[in-house]
Amino acid sequence: MPVLTWDIFCSVVDNYGDIGVCWRLARQLSGDLGQTVRLWVDDLSSFQRIRSELDASRDMQMLQGVEVRHWNTPFDDVEPAAVVVEGFGVRLPDNYIVAMTACKRAPVWINLEHISAEPWVDGYHALPSPHPKLPLTKHFFFPGYTAATGGLLIERDLVAARDAFQADADAQTAFLRALGVLPADSEALCISLFCYDNAALDELVSAWSTGETSILCLIPPGAALTGMSTILGTPLASGGRVVHGRLTALAIPFLDVDDYDRLLWACDVNFVRGEDSFVRAQLAACPLVWQAYVQAENTHLAKQAAFVDRYLENLDAAAADALRALHDCWNRQSAGVGEAWAAFIAARVAAAVHAKAWADRLAGGGNLANKLAEFCMNQLK
Ligand code: TRH
User: Fold this and answer.
1) What are the b/e assignments for 70-108, b being 16+ CB within 10 Å?
2) Residue 366's pLDDT is what?
3) Which residue CA neighbors atom 10 of ligand 1 most closely?
4) Domain 5-153+366-379 grouped into CATH 3.40.50
5) Residue 361 CB contacts under 8 Å (≥ 6 apart), including other chains
6) For helices 201-210 and 337-346, angle between their N-to-C axes, nearest 10 degrees
7) pTM over the 0.85 mark
8) How many whole angstroms from 334 Cα to the centroid of ligand 1?
9) How far apart are CA 305 and CA 119, in angstroms?
10) How far is the CA of 229 from the centre of ligand 1 (A)?
């Protein structure tokens, strides 16, 4: 594959998904495809949270083959790359756009969109959008689940690394021990909980505390931990644990992205949110419960339902009904989540087999970094 230069622009709107996705793309283009990548990030502190070796005070540094640049305002004049990617519709600096028009060959300009399982994505992926005034054309690039979309970010050795870890009980035990999991916890169903503020958490915690299955819930800092602390009446901080009936809640540190992957691989069930943790949980080959990023007019509910429809295809009715109800209550933050959890527990073996089949299907489908690179090279022909 020819080597192109890439500028990826990431503005951290909130939380960690924007930088999580942009970092993953940058690293894969560089590491797996040998591309020359600059990643411009406006908030290096958020980036540092998911990659602790990053120095948030430096304007320029190399990280795993990627040149990481602080996106300052005003933006210094630089020579644009051959491919320019704006993460999630971020507005590029005006002087950078002007510089793009001055290039001998106009850069390929990509807007990397959010993932959605909704069927309309097939028709919008890769559509051009000519600039109203300048001789530049932007293309929309949609991640997704069908051959007509851009696929998913899946690193070349992800599946092998995951399978090796999941086949290695000692590695999993050592990993979990370092997070504060005790030998006595080994009989419990292990859950990771990463979510937004969620009014349904109270009922879910009550179901976990009073159910027949022992639960060990690992909770990174954030809304989930705040919610759990309030419900259990004990402020939890990293390393802290509270036992409440059949539930043991354990606060864990915020992990580097690659360790977060290992956490997802090591747990029996993963509660995830937003975009990047959601995709990683699908690739972890374990059952997941997704809380979509809340949007105006409840558009996230349509997004969530479209995913569930796709995800549950070919799953037996009892397990599918349980997972649908769980997602529905969790995203509507409504009553019924306890009952849905009990139904999920009854169907969890089928759900686990299905999660593995789903991950295999994704791994055999389109790979976003490769598809994007091929698309851009074709544009430059
Ligand atoms: O954090 P999120 O809610 O992020 C986003 C943003 O809100 C964004 O604006 C919005 O557009 C998008 O959601 C839909 O959820 P997400 O996408 O799952 O990103 C979390 C990232 O944090 C992901 O890359 C995994 C990483 N992470 C760690 O590295 N370590 C951890 O311990 C945890 C819990 C997460």
Assistant:
1) bbeeeeeeeebbbbbbbbbebebbeebbebbeeeeebbb
2) 87
3) 17
4) yes
5) none
6) 50
7) yes
8) 23
9) 12
10) 21
Residues annotated as catalytic are 18, 275
> Distance between CA atoms of 71 and 41, rounded to whole angstroms?
5
Q: Which atom of ligand 1 is nearest to the CA of 194?
A: 34
On the question of a cis peptide bond just before residue 74, with omega within 30 degrees of 0, the verdict is yes
Closest to 206 in 3D by CA, of 11, 340, 379: 340
Q: Which H or E run includes 321?
A: helix 317-332
Q: Assign domain 158-363 to a CATH class.
A: alpha beta
pLDDT at 280: 98
Whole-angstrom distance, CA of residue 267 vs CA of residue 271: 10
Single-letter residue type at 211 = G
- Domain(s) of CATH 3.40.50.2000: residues in the chain: 158-363
What number of residues does the chain have? 381
Would you tell me how many other CB atoms lie within 10 Å of the CB of residue 309? 14
In angstroms, the CA 221 to CA 301 distance is: 25
- What secondary structure does DSSP assign to 237-286, as a single string? -TT-EEEETTEEEEE-PPPPHHHHHHHHHH-SEEEEETTHHHHHHHHTTS
pLDDT single digits (tens) 37-46: 999 999 999 9
Q: pLDDT below 70 — which residues of the chain?
A: none
Q: Which residues line ligand 1 (CB under 6 A)?
A: 13-18, 20, 50, 88, 194, 220, 254-255, 257, 260, 273-278, 293
Tokens coding 248: 């043991």
| DSSP SS3 for 193 | strand
Ligand 1 atom with the shortest distance to the CA of 263: 32
